């Protein structure tokens, strides 16, 4: 049984990015990421801090916008516009969720697709679906890297993704399809979820319910990717999978913490370098 080490693999990716950043710097090209946060949601602040730390590690400049909770839509749109126009800014990241009075869709749509390092703009989504160049959303792209770099073959495998959100489930399914997996997407209306999951050679759990997936959902020898992340009553992190219950069944599994989580930030760093490549091409 293999524990898929997201910490180690994400470190490797960050080191690869660091080298590319150094190479670009040697050619006279600095990379900068604008990080926009509205309000002071504690979880968001932790994510933003980790993203800035990763930028520092790989040599990318992070330009921080820490805006007050009461920021208006117009003010936020003006900052996005300014970052779009600033040729020194290569990537724009708006930390989600935004406070309720702000229109998230309008903000994400306003980001220049060539700076859309989160990969949430409809242009990025479209490019991903048709297999064109563009940004891939960080969490599912990180899962693909985890599988590939752990030697897990996707081609021809039964892949079951549970969850269909725009940031995890749907793009996850699309990326597995791109790798020639046979993909099933499940959600809260799926009938016989256990039976569908039991078909999976590769099961991706992304529903946001702590320890939901026990051994009844797992085929012997399956590879299990646990995207969920929760804090339990003892303030310890756990995933969507009941790890202790499934350990003896699986052939490989990602731990929580130290599995998918660290990959998301590593792929964001990768996308910042990708931004420079995309910006070199014609609009
Ligand atoms: P959402 O809440 O947006 O989506 C959850 C999805 O799971 C929905 O499609 C929902 O179905 C489905 N679902 C919920 N309950 C069930 C059920 N009982 N049976 C089948 N399907 C179900 O969550 P996200 O996709 O944003 O995130 C999922 C998890 O991943 C969360 O724990 C989140 O914290 C974590 N996460 C981790 C990241 C990382 O870096 N490690 C990054 C992003 C997320 P329906 O559409 O029918 O409602």
Mean residue pLDDT: 97
Molecules bound to protein? NADPH dihydro-nicotinamide-adenine-dinucleotide phosphate
Q: Which outline best applies? A: globular
Strand content: 15-25%
Helical stretch tally: 10
Order of strands in the sheet with the most strands? 1-11-8-7-5-6
Q: What sequence of helices (H) and strands (E) makes up the elements?
A: EHEHEHEHHHEHEHEEEEHEH
Features of the shown structure:
three-stranded parallel β-sheet; single chain; 283 residues; binds NADPH dihydro-nicotinamide-adenine-dinucleotide phosphate; six-stranded parallel β-sheet; alpha/beta; 10 helices
Protein topology:
Blueprint (H helix, E strand, L loop, with lengths): L1 E2 L2 H21 L5 E7 L3 H17 L2 E7 L5 H13 L5 E4 L9 H7 L11 H9 L7 H12 L8 E5 L6 H10 L3 E5 L6 H5 L4 E4 L17 E4 L3 E2 L5 E2 L4 H4 L5 E2 L6 H21 L3
Parallel strand pairs: 1-11, 2-3, 2-4, 5-6, 5-7, 7-8, 8-11
Antiparallel strand pairs: 9-10
Helix pairs in contact: 1-10, 2-10, 6-7, 6-10
Question: How would you describe this structure to a colleague?
Answer:
The protein is of the alpha/beta class and 283 residues long. Helix content is 42%, strand content 16%. The chain has ten helices and eleven strands. The strands form three sheets. The protein has a six-stranded parallel beta sheet with strand order 1-11-8-7-5-6. It is globular and about 50 Å long.
């Amino acid at each position: 049984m293999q524990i898929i080490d997201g910490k180690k693999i994400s470190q490797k990716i960050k080191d690869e990015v660091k080298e590319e950043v150094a190479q670009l710097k040697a050619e006279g090209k600095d990379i900068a990421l604008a990080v926009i946060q509205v309000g002071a949601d504690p979880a968001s602040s932790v994510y933003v801090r980790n993203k800035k730390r990763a930028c520092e590690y790989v040599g990318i400049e992070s330009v921080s916008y820490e805006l007050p909770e009461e920021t208006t839509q117009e003010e936020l749109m003006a900052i996005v516009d300014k970052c779009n126009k600033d040729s020194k800014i290569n990537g724009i990241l708006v930390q989600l969720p935004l406070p309720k009075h702000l229109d998230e869709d309008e903000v994400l749509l306003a980001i220049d697709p060539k700076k859309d390092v989160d990969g949430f703009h409809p242009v990025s989504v479209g490019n991903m679906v048709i297999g064109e160049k563009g940004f891939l959303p960080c969490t599912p792209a990180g899962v693909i890297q985890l599988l590939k770099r752990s030697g897990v073959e996707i081609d021809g495998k039964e892949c079951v993704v549970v969850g269909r959100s725009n940031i995890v489930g749907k793009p996850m399914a699309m990326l597995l399809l791109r790798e020639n997996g046979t993909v099933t997407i499940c959600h809260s209306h799926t009938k016989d979820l256990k039976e569908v999951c039991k078909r999976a050679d590769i099961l991706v759990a992304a529903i946001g319910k702590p320890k939901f997936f026990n051994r009844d959902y797992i085929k012997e020898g399956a590879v299990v990717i646990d995207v969920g992340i929760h804090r339990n009553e003892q303030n310890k992190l756990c995933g969507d999978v009941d790890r202790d219950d499934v350990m003896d069944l699986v052939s490989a599994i990602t731990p929580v913490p130290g599995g998918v989580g660290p990959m998301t930030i590593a792929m964001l760093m990768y996308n910042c370098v990708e931004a420079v490549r995309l910006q070199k091409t014609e609009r």
